[in-house]
Design goal:
oxidoreductase, alpha/beta, seven-stranded parallel sheet, 254 residues, NAD(P)-bd_dom_sf, Rossmann fold
Length: 254
């Protein structure tokens, strides 16, 4: 019989953990026994509601700008000091990101570039640096990319976003070699189009239906489906999976 709580006594730190995919993975890992640190940048109401849903003895909300080095250091310290945690980080998911999808080459400002690189690349890079001293052997880092890094049908407005996610994928490969020597696995999930508020923002119903039609299943993915893939990477059944970019998209990009 399989263990219904394979993540019992594990502590998971999830940036951008209060909404969308982050909220789904927070809930799912909690259902598997993990203690959850829900990082958020500004929406305390959503984070507090999620903590209330999970239980205050099993989750805590910590405000921090995931692209700011001082905030990242504080986030890690507050995580390992949390009274209901275990004084360590077993699962690290740098999920917070920004997608500026109006940035073709000619329309990208220096501010756009800096904002995207700061949150999408600098944030995960230094979160890994600050967290790994507190991660024992057997821990997991799960970075977040996108299936579109492997697509041949990308429109020019994805240039900046995919530039950042390409960096995340290379970070995954190199860190897997480095941290594997410490018994820490590093992988990335590349979601396809997923039904989150961020995905729907600025899209007409017609466009959403068109994007869904590109998938062999004729639909969008759900945050819960992405969360289950992350949970597998965080659990005991994937200990020999390291340095991989796993596309979770229903076959839209293969």
């Amino acid at each position: 019989m399989s263990n219904p709580q394979p993540l019992l006594n594990k502590t998971a730190l999830i940036t951008g953990g209060s909404r969308g995919i982050g909220a789904a993975v927070s809930l799912h890992l909690a259902s598997l026994g993990a203690k959850i640190v829900v990082n958020y940048s500004s929406n305390s109401r959503a984070a507090d509601a999620l903590v209330s849903q999970i239980g205050a003895d099993k989750a805590v909300a910590i405000q921090a700008d995931a692209g700011n080095l001082q905030d990242v250091e504080r986030l890690v310290q507050e995580t390992i000091s949390w009274e209901h945690g275990n004084g360590k980080i077993d699962i690290l998911i740098p999920n917070a990101a920004i997608g500026l999808l109006t940035c073709t080459l000619d329309k990208t400002s220096e501010e756009d570039y800096d904002r995207s690189m700061t949150l999408n690349v600098k944030g995960p890079y230094f979160l890994c640096q600050k967290a790994t001293p507190h991660m024992p052997a057997g821990s997991s880092i799960i970075l977040v990319s996108t299936s579109l890094t492997g697509s041949t049908q990308v429109t020019p407005n994805y240039l900046l976003y995919l530039t950042t996610k390409g960096a995340v994928e290379q970070m995954t490969r190199v860190l897997a070699k480095d941290l594997g020597r410490k018994g820490i696995t590093v992988n990335a999930i590349g979601p396809g189009p997923t039904a989150t508020d961020m995905f729907f923002e600025g899209k007409s119903e017609e466009l959403v239906k068109t994007i869904a039609s590109w998938n062999p299943f004729g639909r969008l993915g759900t945050p819960e489906e992405i969360a289950r893939a992350m949970a597998w990477l965080a659990g005991p059944e994937s200990t020999w999976v390291n340095g991989q970019i796993i596309k979770v998209n229903g076959g839209m990009v293969v």
